[in-house]
User: Which sequence fits this backbone?
């Protein structure tokens, strides 16, 4: 499925019911006419006591919710339902009742708020949510780049031929990536994006960088 902009979150009384419900959605327990209407428009996943239904349109999401409510009624299970929509500017799920920005000015204002929120969170927690990743041609080049960035007071992690630099927000990461593409040795690969898992542990005292080596 190309788009999954809509999400139904179903919170069940306990994890023991999750497998039964997801199997019911995927298999024969969903009535045949509903399966035809839903087709491949809805994806299902689970996490703890939550079942998530992802759809490309609001109609598909609401149909999936209707089907699942019926399945739960048949099994005498109760659950809480929530309908969310992916917010492309905020880069997070928002309640479906929250309107999306319509004009360029509204989109820019929301983006600026998101950048400000990311920066505030990063400074408050000491953890960078964004990073710039540089892959170099040799360990020596990675060592030299890491030392230079450390000298600039940046937070650096080096892993053999890779150098990762923390950033407080998307704009900061994008700007740093553009600079490094110009300054890095020929053939280096530079990319920026959100920190995927464990966030940077930023130094809190005097901007001292944290550097790790293997």
Assistant:
């Amino acid at each position: 499925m190309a788009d999954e902009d809509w999400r139904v979150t179903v919170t069940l009384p306990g994890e023991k019911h999750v497998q039964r419900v997801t199997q019911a959605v995927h298999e024969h327990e969903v009535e045949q006419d509903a399966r035809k209407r839903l087709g491949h428009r809805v994806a299902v996943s689970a996490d703890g006591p939550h079942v998530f239904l992802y759809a490309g349109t609001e109609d598909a999401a609401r149909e999936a919710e209707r089907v699942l409510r019926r399945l739960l009624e048949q099994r005498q299970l109760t659950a809480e339902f929530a309908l969310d929509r992916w917010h492309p500017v905020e880069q997070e799920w928002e309640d479906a009742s929250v309107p999306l920005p319509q004009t360029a000015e509204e989109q820019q204002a929301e983006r600026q708020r998101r950048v400000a929120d990311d920066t505030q969170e990063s400074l408050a927690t000491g953890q960078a949510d964004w990073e710039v990743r540089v892959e170099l041609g040799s360990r020596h080049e990675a060592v030299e780049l890491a030392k230079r960035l450390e000298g600039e007071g940046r937070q650096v992690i080096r892993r053999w031929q890779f150098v990762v630099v923390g950033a407080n927000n998307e704009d900061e990461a994008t700007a740093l990536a553009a600079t490094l593409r110009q300054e890095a040795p020929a053939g280096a690969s530079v990319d920026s994006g959100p920190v995927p898992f464990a966030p940077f542990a930023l130094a809190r005292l005097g901007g001292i960088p944290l550097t790790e080596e293997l």
Q: What stands out?
A: Residues 104-125 form the longest helix (22 residues). The two ends are 40 Å apart (CA to CA).
